[in-house]
Write a structure and sequence with these properties.
This protein has 216 residues and is of the alpha/beta class. The chain has 8 helices and 7 strands; from the N terminus they run αβαβαβαβαβαβααβ.
C-alpha cells in the first residue's frame, strides 16, 4: 500500500518495469542508492528492501517528498529525502546505484508544466529532464556503479544511449514492455502523429529500461 498526495505520480507499469530490472540487476551489498524523481517513494522503498544500506530519494514536488516520507514510515524503511531538481540537489555526491523514472511524455507546451503534469510532461521531445539527467549520470555514479533509467520509446532511447556512452558509461537496453496508451497519450495521439512520434493508428507504446555501468 502506498499513500499518494493529490498530483503525485501514481506507480504504473514503468515503475514496476524498473523495479523488476532493479531486482534482476542485484544491488551490490551495502549500496548507496539514488532514486531520482521518487514520486511516492515506491522504488526507493523497494531498493531499501532489496538490501541497500542508504537510499536518497529526490523529487521536485513537495507533495511527492511528503508522500515518500509517509510511505517510508508505513513500510518501516529509512530514506534520505530531498526536495529539488535532481541534477542539482545531489551535486558533488556519488552513488553505487541510480534509479530514474523521470517525466518523459512529449508535450505541445514548451513551458515548465505545473501541478500533476510535472510528473509526465517533458517538453516537445519528451527530453527536458532526460537530457540533463543523462549528462549528469556519469558524475553521480561511483566506481563500478550502475544506473537504471526507464522511459517511453517516444522519447528516443537512442538519444539516452548516446549521451550516456558519451559520458564514458557502458549503456544498453535491458528490459522492454508494450502497454496501451494511458489517458495522457490518448489525448495527444493527433499531435504525436503529426510530429512523427507515433505511427497512424498506433495505440500502444513501448517502455524501455536502460542500464548504464561505470566500468572504469
Amino acid at each position: 500500500m502506498l499513500v499518494r498526495a493529490p498530483g503525485v505520480y501514481r506507480p504504473q507499469p514503468d515503475t514496476w518495469l524498473l523495479a523488476r530490472a532493479m531486482t534482476e540487476a542485484a544491488l551490490p551489498a551495502g549500496a548507496h542508492v539514488l532514486d531520482a524523481c521518487t514520486g511516492t517513494g515506491a522504488l526507493a522503498i523497494h531498493a531499501a528492501r532489496r538490501g541497500a544500506a542508504r537510499v536518497t530519494a529526490v523529487d521536485l514536488s513537495r507533495a511527492a517528498v511528503a508522500s515518500a516520507w509517509l510511505n517510508s514510515r508505513l513500510h518501516g524503511v529509512r530514506l534520505e529525502l530531498l526536495c529539488g531538481d535532481v541534477t542539482r540537489a545531489v551535486d558533488g555526491r556519488r552513488f553505487d546505484v541510480i534509479l530514474a523514472n523521470p517525466p518523459y511524455v512529449p508535450s505541445e507546451n514548451p513551458d515548465r508544466p505545473r501541478g500533476a503534469a510535472r510528473s509526465w510532461d517533458a517538453g516537445r521531445h519528451g527530453r527536458s529532464l532526460l537530457d540533463p539527467l543523462c549528462t549528469k549520470m556519469p558524475q553521480l555514479l561511483g566506481a563500478g556503479g550502475i544506473a537504471l533509467l526507464v522511459h517511453s520509446a517516444v522519447a528516443d532511447p537512442g538519444a539516452s544511449l548516446r549521451q550516456l556512452r558519451a559520458g564514458g558509461l557502458k549503456a544498453t537496453v535491458v528490459a522492454r514492455t508494450v502497454i496501451p496508451f494511458g489517458p495522457v497519450m490518448r489525448d495527444r495521439t493527433g499531435w504525436l502523429r503529426t510530429r512523427g512520434l507515433i505511427r497512424p493508428g498506433q495505440r500502444h507504446e513501448e517502455l524501455v529500461v536502460i542500464r548504464a555501468d561505470r566500468t572504469r
